[in-house]
Amino acid sequence: MALADIQQRIKAAFMASPVLQQAYGFDPGKPFDEQFSELSLEAGDINIFAGAQAVTEAILENDRAQVQSIIENNRIGTGPWYVSLAKQFQWSDSDTYFLAVDPETGIVHYNKTVPENRIITQAAYIENEGRIILKVASGARGNLHRLTYRQQLGLENYLLQMKIAGITVDVVSMEADELEVDCDVYYSPSYDVSQLQNAITAELDRYGMMLNYNGVIYRTDAVSTIKGVPGVVDVAVNGLYGLQGENRQEITRAYTTFSGYFNIKKTDGFPKINLIAE
Protein backbone atom coordinates (compact mmCIF):
# COMPACT_ATOMS: atom_id res chain seq x y z
CA MET A 1 0.00 0.00 0.00
CA ALA A 2 1.28 3.47 -0.90
CA LEU A 3 2.40 5.82 1.87
CA ALA A 4 -0.36 8.36 1.06
CA ASP A 5 -3.02 5.64 1.31
CA ILE A 6 -1.71 4.55 4.71
CA GLN A 7 -1.73 8.15 5.94
CA GLN A 8 -5.34 8.63 4.85
CA ARG A 9 -6.38 5.37 6.49
CA ILE A 10 -4.85 6.42 9.82
CA LYS A 11 -6.41 9.90 9.57
CA ALA A 12 -9.84 8.38 8.88
CA ALA A 13 -9.50 6.12 11.94
CA PHE A 14 -8.37 9.12 14.01
CA MET A 15 -11.44 11.15 13.02
CA ALA A 16 -13.79 8.23 13.62
CA SER A 17 -12.62 7.62 17.20
CA PRO A 18 -15.28 8.75 19.78
CA VAL A 19 -12.56 9.11 22.44
CA LEU A 20 -10.51 11.47 20.26
CA GLN A 21 -13.64 13.37 19.20
CA GLN A 22 -14.38 14.09 22.87
CA ALA A 23 -10.76 14.91 23.72
CA TYR A 24 -10.17 17.29 20.79
CA GLY A 25 -13.69 18.51 20.17
CA PHE A 26 -13.29 18.34 16.37
CA ASP A 27 -16.09 17.90 13.84
CA PRO A 28 -16.13 14.22 12.77
CA GLY A 29 -17.94 15.17 9.58
CA LYS A 30 -14.96 17.09 8.26
CA PRO A 31 -11.67 15.52 7.07
CA PHE A 32 -8.53 15.57 9.19
CA ASP A 33 -6.62 17.92 6.86
CA GLU A 34 -9.26 20.65 7.27
CA GLN A 35 -8.97 20.64 11.05
CA PHE A 36 -5.29 19.95 11.70
CA SER A 37 -2.28 21.75 10.26
CA GLU A 38 0.38 19.78 8.38
CA LEU A 39 2.80 21.11 11.03
CA SER A 40 0.67 19.93 13.97
CA LEU A 41 1.96 17.32 16.39
CA GLU A 42 -0.90 15.00 15.41
CA ALA A 43 -0.07 15.22 11.69
CA GLY A 44 3.61 14.61 12.46
CA ASP A 45 2.83 11.51 14.53
CA ILE A 46 0.58 10.14 11.79
CA ASN A 47 3.33 10.63 9.21
CA ILE A 48 5.81 8.78 11.42
CA PHE A 49 3.43 5.86 12.02
CA ALA A 50 2.48 5.71 8.33
CA GLY A 51 6.13 5.72 7.26
CA ALA A 52 6.98 2.89 9.64
CA GLN A 53 4.03 0.85 8.40
CA ALA A 54 4.95 1.48 4.75
CA VAL A 55 8.50 0.23 5.38
CA THR A 56 7.18 -2.85 7.21
CA GLU A 57 4.75 -3.68 4.40
CA ALA A 58 7.52 -3.24 1.80
CA ILE A 59 9.76 -5.66 3.71
CA LEU A 60 6.96 -8.20 4.05
CA GLU A 61 6.11 -7.89 0.36
CA ASN A 62 9.75 -8.46 -0.59
CA ASP A 63 9.95 -11.47 1.71
CA ARG A 64 6.72 -12.80 0.18
CA ALA A 65 8.24 -12.51 -3.30
CA GLN A 66 11.39 -14.31 -2.16
CA VAL A 67 9.38 -17.09 -0.54
CA GLN A 68 7.25 -17.45 -3.68
CA SER A 69 10.42 -17.69 -5.77
CA ILE A 70 11.80 -20.41 -3.50
CA ILE A 71 8.52 -22.34 -3.73
CA GLU A 72 8.47 -22.09 -7.54
CA ASN A 73 12.10 -23.19 -7.82
CA ASN A 74 11.47 -26.23 -5.66
CA ARG A 75 8.14 -27.32 -7.10
CA ILE A 76 8.82 -30.84 -8.36
CA GLY A 77 8.66 -31.34 -12.12
CA THR A 78 8.91 -27.65 -13.09
CA GLY A 79 11.60 -26.05 -15.24
CA PRO A 80 13.29 -24.28 -12.29
CA TRP A 81 13.32 -27.57 -10.38
CA TYR A 82 15.14 -29.32 -13.24
CA VAL A 83 17.63 -26.42 -13.46
CA SER A 84 18.38 -26.82 -9.75
CA LEU A 85 18.63 -30.59 -10.20
CA ALA A 86 21.09 -30.25 -13.10
CA LYS A 87 23.39 -28.02 -11.05
CA GLN A 88 23.57 -30.74 -8.38
CA PHE A 89 24.78 -33.32 -10.91
CA GLN A 90 28.22 -34.70 -10.08
CA TRP A 91 30.80 -36.12 -12.46
CA SER A 92 34.21 -37.65 -11.96
CA ASP A 93 36.29 -39.92 -14.20
CA SER A 94 37.75 -41.64 -11.14
CA ASP A 95 34.81 -41.91 -8.80
CA THR A 96 31.30 -43.32 -8.88
CA TYR A 97 28.27 -41.76 -7.27
CA PHE A 98 25.11 -43.59 -6.40
CA LEU A 99 21.66 -42.17 -5.81
CA ALA A 100 19.73 -43.23 -2.74
CA VAL A 101 16.25 -42.49 -1.46
CA ASP A 102 15.86 -41.14 2.05
CA PRO A 103 13.33 -43.55 3.63
CA GLU A 104 11.84 -40.81 5.81
CA THR A 105 11.52 -37.93 3.34
CA GLY A 106 11.51 -39.80 0.03
CA ILE A 107 14.09 -37.32 -1.31
CA VAL A 108 16.62 -38.72 -3.79
CA HIS A 109 20.23 -37.75 -3.06
CA TYR A 110 23.82 -38.77 -3.76
CA ASN A 111 25.55 -41.20 -1.43
CA LYS A 112 28.19 -38.48 -1.00
CA THR A 113 28.45 -34.87 -2.10
CA VAL A 114 31.63 -33.46 -3.64
CA PRO A 115 30.98 -29.79 -4.56
CA GLU A 116 34.01 -29.51 -6.87
CA ASN A 117 32.60 -32.33 -9.00
CA ARG A 118 29.39 -30.44 -9.74
CA ILE A 119 30.30 -29.64 -13.34
CA ILE A 120 27.12 -27.84 -14.47
CA THR A 121 27.78 -24.14 -13.90
CA GLN A 122 25.08 -22.75 -16.20
CA ALA A 123 21.59 -24.08 -16.84
CA ALA A 124 18.35 -22.74 -18.24
CA TYR A 125 15.10 -24.21 -19.47
CA ILE A 126 12.53 -23.70 -22.21
CA GLU A 127 9.05 -25.20 -22.10
CA ASN A 128 7.80 -26.29 -25.49
CA GLU A 129 4.56 -28.24 -26.06
CA GLY A 130 4.78 -30.18 -22.81
CA ARG A 131 8.52 -30.80 -23.07
CA ILE A 132 11.26 -29.22 -20.99
CA ILE A 133 14.38 -28.38 -22.98
CA LEU A 134 17.27 -28.08 -20.55
CA LYS A 135 20.30 -26.11 -21.77
CA VAL A 136 23.50 -26.70 -19.81
CA ALA A 137 27.15 -25.69 -19.97
CA SER A 138 30.28 -26.17 -17.90
CA GLY A 139 33.17 -23.88 -17.03
CA ALA A 140 33.55 -20.29 -15.85
CA ARG A 141 32.07 -17.14 -17.39
CA GLY A 142 34.09 -16.27 -20.48
CA ASN A 143 35.27 -19.87 -20.80
CA LEU A 144 32.06 -21.88 -21.01
CA HIS A 145 31.99 -25.11 -22.97
CA ARG A 146 29.72 -28.02 -23.75
CA LEU A 147 29.67 -31.28 -21.81
CA THR A 148 31.55 -34.23 -23.23
CA TYR A 149 29.49 -37.08 -24.67
CA ARG A 150 30.01 -39.19 -21.54
CA GLN A 151 29.18 -36.29 -19.22
CA GLN A 152 25.95 -35.52 -21.06
CA LEU A 153 25.00 -39.20 -21.05
CA GLY A 154 25.66 -39.28 -17.30
CA LEU A 155 23.48 -36.20 -16.78
CA GLU A 156 20.66 -37.71 -18.84
CA ASN A 157 20.79 -40.95 -16.83
CA TYR A 158 20.84 -38.94 -13.60
CA LEU A 159 17.75 -36.96 -14.65
CA LEU A 160 16.05 -40.17 -15.81
CA GLN A 161 16.24 -41.50 -12.26
CA MET A 162 14.51 -38.32 -11.10
CA LYS A 163 11.98 -38.41 -13.92
CA ILE A 164 8.43 -37.33 -13.20
CA ALA A 165 5.73 -39.27 -15.02
CA GLY A 166 4.31 -37.40 -17.99
CA ILE A 167 7.24 -34.96 -18.29
CA THR A 168 9.80 -35.24 -21.09
CA VAL A 169 13.17 -33.58 -20.57
CA ASP A 170 15.64 -33.04 -23.42
CA VAL A 171 19.20 -32.07 -22.51
CA VAL A 172 21.01 -29.67 -24.85
CA SER A 173 24.74 -28.96 -24.47
CA MET A 174 26.48 -27.27 -27.38
CA GLU A 175 29.64 -25.38 -28.15
CA ALA A 176 29.18 -21.63 -28.05
CA ASP A 177 27.21 -19.83 -30.72
CA GLU A 178 29.27 -17.25 -32.59
CA LEU A 179 28.51 -13.59 -33.20
CA GLU A 180 29.71 -12.56 -36.66
CA VAL A 181 30.39 -8.82 -36.78
CA ASP A 182 30.98 -6.73 -39.92
CA CYS A 183 30.81 -2.96 -39.48
CA ASP A 184 32.23 0.43 -40.36
CA VAL A 185 33.40 2.30 -37.29
CA TYR A 186 33.88 6.06 -37.48
CA TYR A 187 36.45 7.27 -35.00
CA SER A 188 38.28 10.34 -33.80
CA PRO A 189 41.66 10.54 -35.63
CA SER A 190 43.41 11.37 -32.36
CA TYR A 191 43.14 7.68 -31.39
CA ASP A 192 45.61 5.00 -32.45
CA VAL A 193 44.03 2.65 -35.01
CA SER A 194 45.62 -0.54 -33.71
CA GLN A 195 44.77 0.18 -30.09
CA LEU A 196 41.21 1.14 -31.02
CA GLN A 197 40.76 -2.09 -32.99
CA ASN A 198 41.91 -4.14 -29.99
CA ALA A 199 39.72 -2.14 -27.61
CA ILE A 200 36.60 -2.77 -29.73
CA THR A 201 37.30 -6.51 -29.92
CA ALA A 202 37.92 -6.65 -26.16
CA GLU A 203 34.66 -4.82 -25.47
CA LEU A 204 32.73 -7.25 -27.68
CA ASP A 205 34.34 -10.14 -25.77
CA ARG A 206 33.26 -8.53 -22.50
CA TYR A 207 29.70 -8.18 -23.84
CA GLY A 208 29.62 -11.90 -24.53
CA MET A 209 30.97 -12.72 -21.08
CA MET A 210 28.51 -10.45 -19.27
CA LEU A 211 25.37 -11.60 -21.10
CA ASN A 212 23.20 -13.78 -18.88
CA TYR A 213 23.19 -17.48 -19.73
CA ASN A 214 20.48 -18.17 -22.32
CA GLY A 215 20.24 -14.41 -22.79
CA VAL A 216 19.24 -12.66 -25.98
CA ILE A 217 21.66 -10.78 -28.26
CA TYR A 218 20.03 -7.53 -29.32
CA ARG A 219 21.35 -5.71 -32.37
CA THR A 220 21.09 -2.39 -30.54
CA ASP A 221 23.15 -3.76 -27.62
CA ALA A 222 25.93 -4.95 -29.95
CA VAL A 223 26.04 -1.52 -31.62
CA SER A 224 25.98 0.26 -28.24
CA THR A 225 28.86 -1.92 -27.06
CA ILE A 226 31.04 -0.71 -29.94
CA LYS A 227 29.88 2.89 -29.63
CA GLY A 228 30.79 2.83 -25.95
CA VAL A 229 34.50 2.42 -26.72
CA PRO A 230 36.38 5.73 -26.21
CA GLY A 231 37.24 7.25 -29.57
CA VAL A 232 34.31 5.75 -31.46
CA VAL A 233 32.04 8.37 -33.00
CA ASP A 234 29.52 6.24 -34.89
CA VAL A 235 28.87 2.70 -36.10
CA ALA A 236 27.36 1.48 -39.39
CA VAL A 237 26.54 -2.23 -39.38
CA ASN A 238 27.19 -4.06 -42.64
CA GLY A 239 26.30 -7.45 -41.26
CA LEU A 240 25.47 -9.00 -37.88
CA TYR A 241 24.82 -12.74 -37.69
CA GLY A 242 24.34 -15.40 -35.05
CA LEU A 243 25.88 -18.77 -35.93
CA GLN A 244 25.43 -22.26 -34.52
CA GLY A 245 26.77 -25.09 -36.63
CA GLU A 246 25.28 -24.79 -40.12
CA ASN A 247 22.69 -22.30 -38.94
CA ARG A 248 23.46 -18.67 -39.82
CA GLN A 249 20.81 -16.15 -38.81
CA GLU A 250 20.90 -12.44 -39.51
CA ILE A 251 20.25 -10.38 -36.40
CA THR A 252 17.84 -7.71 -37.54
CA ARG A 253 16.62 -7.19 -33.98
CA ALA A 254 17.29 -10.09 -31.62
CA TYR A 255 18.90 -13.52 -31.55
CA THR A 256 18.45 -16.24 -28.93
CA THR A 257 21.50 -18.46 -28.68
CA PHE A 258 21.01 -22.17 -29.26
CA SER A 259 23.74 -23.07 -26.76
CA GLY A 260 22.85 -20.42 -24.18
CA TYR A 261 26.07 -18.42 -24.66
CA PHE A 262 28.27 -17.04 -27.43
CA ASN A 263 31.75 -16.00 -28.51
CA ILE A 264 32.79 -13.41 -31.05
CA LYS A 265 33.75 -15.09 -34.33
CA LYS A 266 37.51 -14.67 -34.86
CA THR A 267 38.12 -16.71 -37.99
CA ASP A 268 37.86 -15.94 -41.72
CA GLY A 269 38.82 -12.31 -41.08
CA PHE A 270 36.16 -11.64 -38.44
CA PRO A 271 35.37 -9.48 -36.64
CA LYS A 272 35.48 -7.12 -39.61
CA ILE A 273 35.90 -3.67 -38.11
CA ASN A 274 36.61 -1.12 -40.82
CA LEU A 275 37.93 2.00 -39.06
CA ILE A 276 37.18 5.30 -40.77
CA ALA A 277 38.61 8.55 -39.42
CA GLU A 278 36.08 11.34 -38.97
Please give a structural write-up.
This protein has 278 residues and is an alpha/beta fold. The chain has helices at 3-16, 18-24, 32-35, 41-73, 79-87, 149-161, 193-210, 219-227; strands at residues 99-101, 108-110, 122-128, 131-137, 168-172, 177-187, 216-218, 232-244, 247-250, 254-256, 262-264, 272-277. The strands form four sheets. Strands 6, 8, 9, 11 and 12 form a five-stranded mixed β-sheet that branches. Helix 1 crosses helix 4 (41-73). The longest helix has 33 residues, at 41-73.
Query: What's the count of strands?
Result: 12
Q: How big is the Rg?
A: 29 Å
- Strand proportion, as a percent range, falls in 15-25%
Elements, N to C (H/E): HHHHHEEEEHEEHEHEEEEE
Structural class: alpha/beta
Considering DSSP H and I runs of 4 or more, what fraction of the residues is helical?
25-40%
- Report the uncertain regions: none
Number of helices: 8
Attribute tags:
278 residues, alpha/beta, 5-stranded mixed sheet, 3-stranded mixed sheet, 12 strands, single chain
Structure at a glance:
With 278 residues, the protein is of the alpha/beta class. It is 38% helix and 24% strand.
Topology (SSEs and partners):
Blueprint (H helix, E strand, L loop, with lengths): L2 H14 L1 H7 L7 H4 L5 H33 L5 H9 L11 E3 L6 E3 L11 E7 L2 E7 L11 H13 L6 E5 L4 E11 L5 H18 L5 E3 H9 L4 E13 L2 E4 L3 E3 L5 E3 L7 E6 L1
Parallel strand pairs: 4-5, 6-11, 6-12
Antiparallel strand pairs: 1-2, 3-4, 6-8, 7-10, 8-9
